[in-house]
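A further point concerns the way the authors explain their paired sequence and structure data. An entry of this sort, consisting of the sequence and the corresponding backbone structure tokens, reads as follows:
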Amino acid sequence: MDSTNRSSVIIIGAGISGISAAKVLSENGVEDIVMLEASDRIGGRIRKECFGGVSVELGAGWIAGVGGREANPVWELAVQHNLKTCFSDYSNARFNIYDQSGKLIPSGIADDSYKKAVESAIQKLRDEEVEEDDEEANDDGNKVTKPSLTPKTPVELAIDFILHDFEMAEVEPISTYVDFGEREFLVADERGYDHLLYKMAEGFLFTSEGRILDDRLKLNKVVRELQHSRNGVTVITEDGCVYEANYVILSVSIGVLQSDLLAFNPPLPRWKLEAIEKCDVMVYTKIFLKFPYRFWPCGPEKEFFMYAHEQRGYYTFWQHMDNAYPGSNILVVTLTNGESKRVEAQTNEETLREAMAVLRDMFGPNIPDAIDILVPCWWNNRFQRGSYSNFPIISNGSCRSHFLHWRAHQ
């Protein structure tokens, strides 16, 4: 096996967290670092691709948390480098719900379904806290069954999907929105969201004409084993290279940690493994469709629309790209979790047929066929194994505290 000189710190993963960690180390005088990235680029889940003549974001696409009492550093960086964005408000999506006959669901029904979905989520959390299966004692000591608020109709399923899958429900308010504000901006820049990462990297890595040429960043280095002891760490990659350092910062996704890609020697303690396994991993797939011309509404508050189907999450949430890229004639449909995995396992032609059938339900049989489709695969990507993660919804907080303790000591 090849060997390299020992460094102070090895950073595994060159996504936004890995780049940020390297930046902080450099700012504090630690410059003898090595960054090992499994793919052929930096960015991780920030990834652009040219589609339909424009640059689309396959992963992270919004800057969330703008307009609050504190300045969002990502937003400040975007402003500093003139990243093109447009305000994005999908709160009106629930009033643009089409049924399978192409009719818009009346706003009153949509609003009632939204309230029911919120009440259902609150009830579920309360039930889990008291550990009772939808039963409680009445004044006579008898058991009575609570009325079910489980979504059943297609419109209820659609709204439940947007509340709990599309936005991924949280037990506690998301600090991003609490601290930085509730406004969100869609990145619509031909240079891509990852332009900000390259600008960050310029401060501590050698770059030339927008390319990183610094030999401390090593691409296509798939880490397979991490050996750690009191003497430091040894990292072994798939191509047989060995890297040694005093410390390691592991900046891979929770999905990767839950997979068998990385081996730890000695193994991680059981409590760490249990904390990792209990964290939810969300698969979030944005499918892009290019059309010869526009056939969907584009007026105010029409950027997002939904499809009500008896199968929860079946091509539910749609967005047109006219605000971001006028005249692009591109639609985006978001799938998550089970539907994402199902679509990744089939051909793009099958996915295109399904999507077109849904669009013809909404807009009629005479709409044109899509002329191109782009289907990202985040679940079957062994360097990702999902899109993002979250703390599990639990009542006692023990897993969360264990996970935070583990993160603080890596």
Residues 2-49+193-251 form a domain with the FAD/NAD(P)-binding domain fold (CATH 3.50.50.60).
